[in-house]
Amino acid sequence: MSEKPKLERQAMCDRLAMEFQDEWIVNLGVGMPTLCSNYIDPNKEIIFHSENGVIGYGPLADEGKEDKHLVNAGGQNVTAVPGMAIVHHADSFALIRGGMVDVTVMGAYEVAENGDFANWRIPTRKGGGIGGAMDLAACAKRVFIAMEHTTREGNPRLLKKCNLPVTAPSAVKLLATDLGLFEITSDGFILKEYAPGWTLEEIQAQTEAELTLSSDAQEFRFR
Amino acid sequence: MKSKIYDSFDHAVSDIPDGSTVMSPGFGQVGVPRNLLAALNRQGAKQLTAVSNNAGTLDDKIDIGTLIEAGQVKKMICAFTAPTHPSQVTPFVRMYNNDEIDAELVPQGTLAERMRAASAGIGGFYTPTSVGTELAEGKEHREINGRMHVLEYPLPGDFALIRAWRADTFGNLQFRMAQRNFNPIMATAAAVTIVEIEDKIVEVGELDPDHIHVPGVYVNRLVKIPSDGIFE
Predict the structure, then answer these.
(1) Measured at the alpha carbon of residue B24, what is the angle toward residues B21 and B29, in degrees to the nearest 5?
(2) Arithmetic mean of pLDDT, B114-128
(3) Is A180 left (phi over 0), alpha (psi -120 to 50) or beta?
(4) A19-77 pLDDT tens trace
């Protein structure tokens, strides 16, 4: 097992956020994906949407300045920005199912080479936590995933086929892990960018699915 | 017209019988009808079917988890039946693992739309959400415009416990910011809608009709949260 440094979570989320385009409606999942909102490109206006019906919220509120009625999907107090709109939960998901969300960024336990991913249930535990993940995964224009390349035990998460129950089939387009940036196409996982110092072979050794090196592969971009 | 204003939360929930389906909104700790839930907990109705986004949290605030812990809920319909982290063992998780409570897991958007369908007199709807997953198994599938959908049915309630910002005496409601969440759809999906008001209850005519989030025709009972009530 290599002891080379891996990418930080913020770098992974920054890289995905670099793909956001001007005026995109973006939905960030709870946990690691919320870090995407820390990446600010002054040339792009991003509209952040949250499942609870907040359309166009701003950065996290400073301590002592929170509006107790204004939270994002993770229950964090966010700020109002000019142009923000509020709808109820059914209308918020009408917006999602209606295809208005340009990208949803989520965490996952596993991603498969056909774009399937799993993030809601561990069969050894009873029940599951879906929240809005299935609606978003099925209906957003794009699904991006941010997750560690392997499990805590070192088992691969980039698989030929998901072992866990899937959240949506054939949904994932782009994936950032702590070892690089991967696109999913009909040819499976394409390694687009690799963490500094890592080779395709070293990353492949930590991956179950077969990786293809992109013709324009390069070192991971931090900005 | 008979006044909709009740003098106490206990009075407002006194007739909720055992076996009722009770809807209670809230998302990220905002818009939770904690005073009414506390009153229903004191009232003691049992064998309830509860509809909520989640099945309670680990903090000590009153929510649907308070009624679950007290053994008042026989079935939970919600979007989370497992904790987001295995260390978060709520009363619901403990009871669910011991088969002491039943649960139906529903994707959040489907949950919201099922309630809206109930309020709108829609007999069912097809959604692409959950297609290709375990949750679609056994459900009617139909391809519409080249895309596979599953059939989902309406979800009506007997009672909705609602937290709103402002009301007039007729029951027209306004919400503030993300407090709105599930409140309007639950208020319209339930047969009897009981509302706790955070800011104030004003006279009829004082709220702008263009800025009403739930029309008063859906609202049956109003209680202003007193200064010593639960506001957060």
Answers:
(1) 155
(2) 98
(3) left
(4) 999 999 999 999 899 999 999 899 999 999 999 999 999 999 999 999 999 999 999 99
**Across A5-15, average pLDDT:** 97
Catalytic residue among A51, A110, A113, A148: A51
Q: Which domains occur in chain A, in start order?
A: 9-219 (3.40.1080.10)
Please say if the pLDDT value at position B86 is more than 90.
no
CA B84 to centroid of chain Cα atoms: 21
Report CB contact under 8 Å: A130, B113. Answer: no
In chain B the domains, ranked by start, together with CATH numbers, are 9-106+156-202+210-221 (3.40.1080.10)
Cβ contact (<8 Å) for B133 and A166?
yes
**Token pair of A124, please?**
């050894």
Strands (E) across B135-189 are located at 141-144, 147-152, 157-168, 173-174
Which amino acid is residue B110, in one-letter code?
Answer: T
Is the distance from CB of A217 to CB of A199 less than 8 angstroms?
no
User: What residue in B sits closest to A94 (Cα-Cα)?
Assistant: B109
A153 among known catalytic residues: no
Interface mutation target, options B129, B162, B174, B212, chain A, most CBs of A under 10 Å: B129
Query: Which H/E stretch holds residue A102?
Result: none
Task: Give A223 or A109, the one with higher predicted confidence.
Answer: A109
The amino acid present at B198, given as its one-letter code, is E
**Which whole number is the average pLDDT over B188-192?**
98
The pair of three-digit structure tokens given for residue B105, joined into one six-digit string: 């897991």
Nearest by CB to residue A135, choosing from B84, B108, B165, is B108
